[in-house]
């Protein structure tokens, strides 16, 4: 099966990247498939030729939260304070979500943030492609 860019992006976006914890997405070169595995529930493909897929936001890393905090520094100071106040109550993960889903962002703010996320996913997808195509 040919792995599409969209398939890779989906796995990267949802990858906890914590094999000994929640698990991780990998690509099996032998079977040419993306699969999910963990130390608690290993997949049979773990015995074959595989590579770990990158992660947009690995468990426990707070990468997206920190990136979002840097991103909003170009917004008006008053708005930054509103978001910080919101994050104190509900957390940065919720602050970077649309207000209609319980988050803090207006549509136009979420669109700006989504551009950043999409660009990063594109970079990680290219990184994954190069790992997949590399001969071991």
Give descriptors for this structure.
136 residues, 3 strands, 2 domains, mainly alpha
- The N- to C-terminal Cα distance equals 20 Å
Number of β-strand runs: 3
Number of domains: 2
Estimate the global geometry from the Cα principal axes: elongated
Run of helices and strands: HEEEHHHH
The Rg value, from CA coordinates, equals: 17 Å
Average residue-wise pLDDT: 95
Poorly predicted tracts of residues: none
The helix content is 40-55%
How many H/I helical runs? 5
Largest sheet: 3 strands, antiparallel
What is the SS-derived class? mainly alpha
- Which band does the percent of strand residues land in? 5-15%
Strand order of the largest sheet: 2-1-3
Report what the structure shows:
It is a single chain. The protein has 136 residues and is mostly helical. It folds into two domains: 5-58, no CATH class; 63-105, no CATH class. The protein is 46% helix and 10% strand. The protein has helices at 5-13, 63-71, 77-90, 92-95, 107-133, and strands spanning 24-28, 33-37, 50-52. Strand 1 (24-28) and strand 2 form a beta hairpin. The model has no long low-confidence stretch (mean pLDDT 95).
